[in-house]
């Protein structure tokens, strides 16, 4: 990708790696699809790092502006699917 991921400098290196894994999972949903359970797993880890709704919304909006991929719509679709399904945006 030709853009920088939105991150916080307050996060540890491991947290940054995990947040980037979430962003990459969203990209994979747009590219070729991703297993719902894997996406939800990386999203749960993202929520451990970013528990607040306002911060999550700000990061998601910044990510969408930079990448064109909607983390919100991807997670919304994943929540509507069953375990074992693939999320394809």
From TrEMBL:
Q: Which InterPro entries match?
A: BH2638-like_sf, UPF0223
So where does this one cross the membrane?
none
- Pfam families per the UniProt record, alphabetical: UPF0223
Supply the Gene3D superfamilies for this chain.
Answer: BH2638-like
By its UniProt entry, which NCBIfam families does this protein fall under? PRK04387.1 (NF003353)
Q: Into which family does the record put it? A: Belongs to the UPF0223 family.
Q: Per its UniProt record, what HAMAP family does this chain match?
A: UPF0223 (MF_01041)
List the protein's name: UPF0223 protein JOC95_003657
* UniProt organism field: Sutcliffiella tianshenii
Give the source lineage, highest ranks first.
Bacteria, Bacillati, Bacillota, Bacilli, Bacillales
């Amino acid at each position: 990708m030709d853009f920088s991921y939105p991150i916080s400098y307050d996060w540890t290196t491991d947290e940054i790696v995990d947040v980037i894994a979430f962003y990459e999972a969203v990209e994979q949903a747009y590219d070729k699809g991703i297993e719902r359970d894997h996406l939800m797993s990386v999203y749960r880890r993202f929520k451990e790092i970013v528990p607040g709704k306002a911060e999550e919304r700000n990061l998601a909006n910044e990510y969408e502006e930079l990448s064109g991929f909607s983390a919100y719509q991807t997670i919304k679709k994943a929540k509507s699917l069953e375990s074992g399904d693939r999320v394809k945006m």
